[in-house]
Amino acid sequence: MMRRSILATAIIALLGCAACSRFRSAPPIESAVTPPNEVLEFKVLYGQNCAGCHGPEGKGGAALSLADPVFLAITDDSAIRRAAAKGMRGTPMPAFEETSGGMLSQKQIDALVHGIRSWAKADGVGGNVPLPSYETQSPGNPQRGAAVYQTFCSSCHGAEGRGGKAGSIVDGSYLALVSDQDLRLTVITGRPALGAPDWRGNVPGRPMSDQEISDVVAWLVAQRPAVPGQPYPKSAVAQMKEGPR
């Protein structure tokens, strides 16, 4: 009986030592956690940093679709990288690169650019219509732009841009949250998810020219309020401060 008790105690002690040894050993390599600044998987980076605005798989949301074939056809890698790294001034698009105050490394920005570019279709946007330039090549003229607007946009957005079949595009809050470049991209790419055609589809058989795009953007910019967020005239503000008479 004594021998059995001693043997049982010895077995328990050995098992305990083995367990302690197992817990003291280094964890297996596959269980190691990758530091956030070393994550280079595109799906993870995009999901954590971009999908909230640009939609799952780049199909659009609050911001334009990054997987749109027109966008990818007119945009080169340097423009995509610049927007991701530095952000876009005057818009909700923040800077994501560490050197600009963000949280992503240069390698992570490169991984995002490479992943977004992988959405491009081999045949581009198709058709024989010349592609507009990503950035304006000559200054737009708002007076000409007013006529361009009537030709290509008024049937959906109304005679003055305040809405019709589609919403208002001269709303002060909207124009205050988009840059001139954002407006240009929207005119070129449209918003397919919302039924808005690209630069080729506003008037059947009559795509917009590069200059017409610049001109209508100049017209839209001219509608932007000088002081966003203050829709009331000064006289009305003063009257509200004085209170009821």
Mean of pLDDT: 85
Counting helices, strands and paired strands, the structural category is mainly alpha
Estimated radius of gyration: 29 Å
What top-tier CATH class of one domain fits best?
A: Mainly Alpha
Name given to the CATH homologous superfamily of one domain: Cytochrome c-like domain
Q: How much β-strand is present in the residues?
A: under 5%
Write up what this structure looks like:
This protein is an all-alpha fold and 245 residues long. The protein has helices at residues 2-24, 42-49, 51-54, 69-74, 77-86, 106-117, 142-152, 154-157, 172-176, 180-189, 210-222, 234-242. α7 (142-152) packs across α11. It starts with a helix and ends with a helix. The model has no long low-confidence stretch (mean pLDDT 85).
Which helices and strands appear, and what pairs or packs with what?
Layout: H1 2-24, H2 42-49, H3 51-54, H4 69-74, H5 77-86, H6 106-117, H7 142-152, H8 154-157, H9 172-176, H10 180-189, H11 210-222, H12 234-242
Short account of what is shown:
With 245 residues, this protein is an all-alpha fold. It has helices spanning 2-24, 42-49, 51-54, 69-74, 77-86, 106-117, 142-152, 154-157, 172-176, 180-189, 210-222, 234-242. The mean pLDDT is 85.
Features:
12 helices, 245 residues, 0% strand, Cytochrome Bc1 Complex, Chain D, domain 2, single chain, mainly alpha
